[in-house]
Amino acid sequence: MPRRGAPSLVLSLALFLSGCAGLVGGKESVPTVEPPRPDQRGPAHLPGQGSLNVQKGRPGYVVGAPHGTTDSATDVIGLELARRTGFGSAVATGFGKLDAEGRRYNVNRPTESLAGAPPNTETQTEGARRVFEAYSRSVTEASQGPLRVYVEVHGNGHQDTAGRVEIATVGLSEEDAWQVKTLLELIRDAYLRGHPETPRLEILVEPVDTLRYSASASKSGGVLGRSEKALHVELPKVARATSRDAYTNMLVDFLAQWADLLTTAARGR
Predict the structure, then answer these.
(1) pTM to 2 decimals?
(2) What does pLDDT average to over the chain?
(3) Which residues lie across from 55 on neighbouring strands?
(4) In terms of Cα–Cα distance, which of 104, 114, 116 is closest to 49?
(5) Interval 214-226 mean pLDDT
(6) Which end of the chain has fewer CB atoms < 10 Å from its terminal CB, N or C?
């Protein structure tokens, strides 16, 4: 699909009203939002498997990291995103390495498989169902009511996606996806002007772009399909390792401003 030449007038106005014009300063302009002291539970352990950590924040807004340790550093990134945006969080750790082949519980859906395996190779098991139900309850607890915005953080090491951030979506129109893509690109470019040493990762957002990781299994039978609006964020290794702080800062700024845009749009209806 050919890319549009510029953001729509509606998006430009929305970005202006939300303060996006103040991004030029780069990292220093990234807001650190200290949420009210959230109720916290965790980590809660599932026997012989792993643990779930829940923190409550803004009702209806949750950051999830279902593969917190198997997708390296996504537990740390997920908790940081929640802390600095005021979102609640649900983070799962230790559900990998079920056997010598490296199978893991998929956590955000009731299956197990090798990491990165195609959905048609996933297997439903009793253990996977128990872990999924526990994680689903954790997301519900963090949400404290209807799940309005759910952001899942993942990581991959595939060579084809090493230079990009992929975002699969639920509940977003093509115009909504353009807004997400444009806002995150603006934030990325503003940050990079002050930090040229940081690698410039491409931003791909569904349905505007074709993704390698479309999260189809979690959309159809997992947590993603429960939310009114959801983002499934796939981060390459560089964004979780040497440039983790940089891309965490960008995502914090993006989520804070996107949430403000959603709130403004809801009030206008």
Answers:
(1) 0.83
(2) 85
(3) 40, 89
(4) 104
(5) 93
(6) C
What six digits make up the tokens of 188? Answer: 């990325």
187 or 116: which leads in pLDDT? 187
Please tell me which residue, 113 or 32, carries the higher pLDDT value: 113
Candidates 3.40.630, 3.40.1350, 3.30.460, 3.30.70; correct CATH number of 9-268? 3.40.630
The DSSP string of 22-88 is GGGGGGGGS---------EEEEEEPTTS-EEEEE--EEEEEEEETTTTTSTTHHHHHHHHHHHH-EE
pLDDT at residue 202, as a whole number:
98
| 150 membership: H or E segment, kind and range | strand 149-155
- Which residues, including other chains, have CB under 8 Å from residue 118's CB and lie 6 or more apart? none
pLDDT at 45: 54
Q: What distance in Å separates the CA atoms of residue 240 and residue 238, rounded to the nearest whole number?
A: 5
